[in-house]
Amino acid sequence: GEGMPVILHFDNQTGTFDAADADLLIDSVLTPGGAMELYLAHLGTSGGYTHVTRMILRRFTEALNDRPALAKHRIFFDISAVGLTEPSEQFAPLTPEDFADLSGQLTDLGLGKVVFGTDYPVFNSTAYLTALELNMTLTRDELIGVAGNGVPAKGATAGGPKK
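and the corresponding structure tokens:
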């Protein structure tokens, strides 16, 4: 229904997912469309921190900074299955440099736009939050802030229509 948050698993997982896909969402859906609350799973990818993740974050950071029309939306980026400390499916664990780059990209995006998720049951929330705290260059307070982000828009209620 109208006003419902949208959770998008954006990556098409075909190996052809690239900047053109990000531009299509930004230019053809978000820019002309009505205000929405959008959550992009796995920072807009399928997980891990790859060249694709970096590109998606760069594209959205630029668009959100350069296009005032996008301010009508509440856009969040879920960090689930991104900060890997062990191999998972096709994704390699992040190096210390990767964790530093990821921390910088999320800071550039705006930590208020990042939400915590785990990809449960693949990852346990406590273990994942601990792994992020031990490896990210963000402070504990910054991570606590991320963990509290993404509260539904005022007036939206879980499981029911707006009052």
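(Above: one complete record from the training split.) The radius of gyration is 16 Å.
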